[in-house]
Amino acid sequence: MFKALGVGEETCRAIEEKGFKKPTPIQEKAIPPLLEGKDLVGQAQTGTGKTAAFGIPIVEKTEVEKRVVQALILVPTRELAFQVAKEIKDLGKYRGVKVFAVYGGKPVRKQIELLQKIRPHVVVGTPGRVKDLLERGVLKLDNLSTFVLDEADRMLDMGFIDDIKFIYGKTPAQKQTLLFSATLPDEIKEVINRILKEDREEVYIEPQKPTVETVSQKIYRVDNENLLKTFLEKLEEIPFGKAIVFTQTKVEADRLAKHLRSLGFKTAPLHGDYSQSRREAVLRDFRRGRINLLVATDVASRGIDIGDLEVVFNFRLPQDAESYVHRIGRTGRAGRKGIAVSFSPVSDDDRFIRIRKLVGNSFEFVNLSEKPLLKGLLKGRKKKSYKR
Ligand code: AMP
């Protein structure tokens, strides 16, 4: 099926090994024009297969005998840099495409050494570190043929615009430019008009709705003092191969992981206080199944992709409703079914209301508390849809 889009044999073999049976909609729409060399705007979120949508053409177009950087992909976070690099490395393995990820949080000297040793065709990086390497003269973009801005809206939100401008200024005039973004505010449209060719291809993929279609959700309302007890009961009841538990704070993640370990769970905490190398080690252990229950703060809720994650637990509901969608979207990816089980202590009724506003009645609600629901909780909602 990828062959019909113009993808060569070696890359098709790598795609097959990754287990992709057929192209996702964004791949179907983006791969042919990208192979033709067109610029492209893709409005799509993670989970749509957008990485392979640009990764496959990049791999295909790499001139492997030329050991110079031919494609640069800018991403907002280290986790994403690591993940995107891994995916392109997988896709390019039979063509011999060398890929390298650069990001802050790792000693720059070590990265320079590796960069010079690997001599990659493709560099994936966060804007700050890429700029740094350009300024040091160790990264050269004179032979660049493809420039990708991934998650452009998030990069702008994170204040990377000046770094991006600097980097763009170092790229040759003749090149293919790709921009992916989940949203297209005016600021992004301006960037598009400024740096992409007029005859660009534009691909819009409907935002994924992990909440309704691919994740079955359950929310337990509990008395505050019963939170831990109910959580542990459900953790025992629900079978899973791999699961994440989201906590509100780093301290809570550490404490809960310690407690779960004492109960015999194969678990580890993951949050922003840990060094990059420790976070990577934890994620590696999780991918390989050495641990199967990750206790994480929201640091892990965006971008991270664990294909066989079956259950997301929210030890407590997150403060903002969008985080809820991001968290539960870690499961139910790429056509699989996922389960999200959340616990809402009575004191968090307000959070529950906000989440319900955003996701509608896409979840099953189980009220285990005798306490009256917060005023207004039932407003605008038919009583009968609650399980009491
Ligand atoms: P992305 O949107 O790039 O974050 O991709 C989401 C997930 O879907 C990743 O685990 C990819 O490896 C996977 N994926 C990408 N393309 C396909 C495909 N054609 N078939 C099945 N899975 C895919």
UniProtKB/TrEMBL annotation:
<dbReference type="InterPro" id="IPR000629">
    <property type="entry name" value="RNA-helicase_DEAD-box_CS"/>
</dbReference>
<keyword id="KW-0347">Helicase</keyword>
<protein>
    <submittedName>
        <fullName>DEAD/DEAH box helicase</fullName>
    </submittedName>
</protein>
<dbReference type="Pfam" id="PF00271">
    <property type="entry name" value="Helicase_C"/>
</dbReference>
<feature type="domain" description="Helicase ATP-binding">
    <location>
        <begin position="31"/>
        <end position="202"/>
    </location>
</feature>
<dbReference type="InterPro" id="IPR044742">
    <property type="entry name" value="DEAD/DEAH_RhlB"/>
</dbReference>
<dbReference type="InterPro" id="IPR001650">
    <property type="entry name" value="Helicase_C-like"/>
</dbReference>
<keyword id="KW-0067">ATP-binding</keyword>
<dbReference type="GO" id="GO:0003724">
    <property type="term" value="F:RNA helicase activity"/>
</dbReference>
<feature type="domain" description="Helicase C-terminal">
    <location>
        <begin position="227"/>
        <end position="374"/>
    </location>
</feature>
<dbReference type="GO" id="GO:0005829">
    <property type="term" value="C:cytosol"/>
</dbReference>
<dbReference type="InterPro" id="IPR014014">
    <property type="entry name" value="RNA_helicase_DEAD_Q_motif"/>
</dbReference>
<feature type="domain" description="DEAD-box RNA helicase Q">
    <location>
        <begin position="1"/>
        <end position="28"/>
    </location>
</feature>
<dbReference type="InterPro" id="IPR011545">
    <property type="entry name" value="DEAD/DEAH_box_helicase_dom"/>
</dbReference>
<dbReference type="Pfam" id="PF00270">
    <property type="entry name" value="DEAD"/>
</dbReference>
<dbReference type="InterPro" id="IPR014001">
    <property type="entry name" value="Helicase_ATP-bd"/>
</dbReference>
<dbReference type="InterPro" id="IPR050079">
    <property type="entry name" value="DEAD_box_RNA_helicase"/>
</dbReference>
<dbReference type="GO" id="GO:0003676">
    <property type="term" value="F:nucleic acid binding"/>
</dbReference>
<feature type="short sequence motif" description="Q motif">
    <location>
        <begin position="1"/>
        <end position="28"/>
    </location>
</feature>
<dbReference type="InterPro" id="IPR027417">
    <property type="entry name" value="P-loop_NTPase"/>
</dbReference>
<dbReference type="GO" id="GO:0016787">
    <property type="term" value="F:hydrolase activity"/>
</dbReference>
<keyword id="KW-0378">Hydrolase</keyword>
<dbReference type="GO" id="GO:0005524">
    <property type="term" value="F:ATP binding"/>
</dbReference>
<keyword id="KW-0547">Nucleotide-binding</keyword>
<comment type="similarity">
    <text>Belongs to the DEAD box helicase family.</text>
</comment>
